[in-house]
Amino acid sequence: MIETEIEAAINQLRADTMPFLDVQRQRLLSRHKAVERQSKELHSRRRQAINLQRKLYLDQQNKGAPSVYHHIKNNFELNIWSGINSFKTTMGYVRNDMPTTSRIGIIFSGRHLLGELGRTNAWFFNRPHIEMEKCLQSPECAVDQYLGKKLCGDEHLTFQTIDVEDVVIIPSQANENDFNSGIPAIEISMAEDNAETIDPDLINLADTIAARANAVLNCISVRFAANLNYLKRRERAVEEETLRVSQIEKHFEQAEINWKLEKNIAQEYRRWSECAILVNLGTEQDRLQRGVIEQVLTTTDLLLRVPESALAKMVVKARQHASYEETHKRWGIETISLPISTPKTIWSFRTCLLYLHLEYPKEPTMPTSQIDRKELWKAAARFGILTKAWSNWFYHLEPAEMWELHYGDLTFGESKMEKK
Fold first, then answer.
1. pLDDT, tens digit (0-9, with 9 covering 90-100), for 36-57
2. Residue 50 belongs to what domain range?
């Protein structure tokens, strides 16, 4: 009779707990499947990261200068042309003292196959000479210059040292520590003042039921607790590996961006050499009369930046003339002569080149002096590189000065501003 009651109680316990246990099993199973799915995704992400790492590495190897370049000593003297101005520095300065991700640092890093301009035995930078002078003065003076400022981080220089396969191991089975937990044992206690009135057989029955329940529940508890502990270890491992892979991906993505930027800078430098042009400011007659004429070393891209301008038309005509008449080519570079010989027009020409270098197509920084503003406006008008943005000056000028600058535009329809 007692056994029957005990068995009925245990069966009722099982019946009451089974729906709850089934729900818990499904939850654990769902979490295990999520771990498996994330594990496969991480494997795929690692493969993609390795492919990107290899792609970047091979691209850098293919684009780099020969090994002999990297063995050039730091005291090796370099000649640098900026405009027609020549500067001297050392390989150690541009390679070690300048930021390695500045334009100068990139060009002399050896990560790109770049060289000297023609037969000049010098590196040519199509930038204002004052800028190069500041860059070569000291790294501190170079930090805010176009050629000397740092452009990006060094992720593209360190990505190859990362071991993508150094994975966080995701557990594949439970261990002994996972089983070292359960639920507290079921205990039956009675109030002392009622102990003498309770039937001993009833007490024995309760103790037996408690013992059987402990056995059943603790068996279930150990299994579930072990599974849960195992699952938590797997989820922690997946979380750690996800964080690690995400950091690697972020590093490689930035490395790819940085490397693309470097290649663009290297191409910019190559373009300077490809379209370098030496401009004689004056004619052969001027040279014979004065004995010497001024020269400017620049690029056709800069001279032709405003296609329909008077400057561009002048350059096109001079190039055509040089193509069928013998023109002395210094260093073997394309050479043209422009009919610009007076100090005023030479100043205007150099000022316009500086504007095209630094501020075109927006308006230039407005000089503080009225005379300087007038001279700068006339220089731009002379070579036809005025843009409509220059009219922003008018917001800061008195009506009389506005009229003086823009007189021809307002009265005779002879505007020097570019037409749309």
1. 999 999 999 999 999 999 999 9
2. 1-274
